[in-house]
Write a structure and sequence with these properties.
- The chain has 273 residues and is α/β, with parallel strands linked by helices.
- The chain is 39% helix and 17% strand.
- The chain has two domains: 115 residues, Response regulator (Rossmann fold, 3-Layer(aba) Sandwich); 149 residues, Response regulator (Rossmann fold), CATH 3.40.50.2300.
- Helix 1 crosses helix 2 and helix 3 packs parallel to helix 4.
- It is elongated.
Length: 273
């Protein structure tokens, strides 16, 4: 917003609301609606849904929505049609792409564990995309739901017992918050994993592929700017990522005695050594 000429406290005020658990979000969204804010910034699908239920008139802007059309939050990318718009991170498509990348980096893999979070609305769509991709690639998937941090340990034990060759984490705010624990457990169980956010690789995960979320958040400011200047969300097309990142942690690869193919390594946008 500063880059667009706004000065916080002078041109606009941000009313922050933080939720420790997803079930707190409806109350917080209702608070913002009661305050009659000009715009609600709800970064991802899990925040958009309670905001959508709280208001049909106040504009809602998202920055990294998993699948806005698939979840029914907009009518189409070109014509959102309501009070909601923003940028999509293309989770449904990218999750399938991540499986393809994992198979390319680990061609021996025939069984892949999938860690997913049932409360996250977009994960049901992502799982269907993964099943289709797995069938195409000849990869058997072991779906392992994880609802709380206490379930991480048993989840990795389940994957180990299931003799998976590697694992994929369907991204969510939940998995992002506990990325260090996931990386540590992966090393403990000697499993290579692919994530969506590069921060998970910086925390010790093996690799990641996904949209540059910082870029998406920066671009979301332009939606808020246009809405404050009178534009209607219904007329602002949903944009998709333009920057994608493949990140590999060579230190983790060495700890797992895993050799990254050179042809794959040269494609990486960032290599952590």
């Amino acid at each position: 917003m500063r880059d667009l000429g706004y000065v916080e406290g002078n041109d606009f005020v941000i009313e922050y609301r933080w939720a420790e658990q997803p079930n707190e979000l409806p109350k917080l969204a209702a608070e913002l609606v009661h305050m009659n804010v000009d715009v609600i910034f709800a970064p991802s699908s899990i925040q958009v849904e309670p905001a959508r239920q709280a208001t049909k008139t106040i504009p809602i802007v998202f920055a990294a929505h998993a699948d806005p059309v698939g979840l029914g939050h907009v009518a189409s990318l070109a014509r959102p049609g309501g009070n909601i718009t923003g940028l999509s991170m293309m989770l449904t498509d990218l999750t399938a792409k991540q499986l393809e990348i994992a198979k390319e980096a680990m061609p021996h893999a025939t069984r892949v564990g999938v860690l997913w979070n049932p409360p996250t609305p977009s994960h049901a769509l992502a799982l269907e995309a993964l099943k289709a991709a797995g069938k195409k690639l000849g990869v058997e998937l072991q779906m392992v739901p994880v609802r709380t941090v206490e379930e991480f340990g048993p989840a990795f034990a389940t994957m180990t017992e299931g003799r998976v060759d590697c694992f994929l984490v369907v991204p969510s705010a939940f998995s992002y918050s506990y990325r260090t624990q996931l990386a540590d457990l992966a090393l403990k169980h000697r499993l290579g994993g692919i994530f969506q956010q590069k921060e998970s690789v910086e925390a010790g995960g093996l690799m990641s592929y996904g949209a540059d979320t910082l870029d998406l958040y920066r671009r979301a400011a332009s939606y808020v700017d246009r809405i404050l200047k009178g534009a209607q969300p219904a007329d602002l097309p949903v944009e998709q990522p333009t920057k994608f990142e493949l990140v590999i942690n060579l230190k983790t690869a060495k700890a797992l005695d895993f050799t990254i193919p050179e042809s794959f390594l040269v494609r990486a946008d960032d290599v952590i050594e």
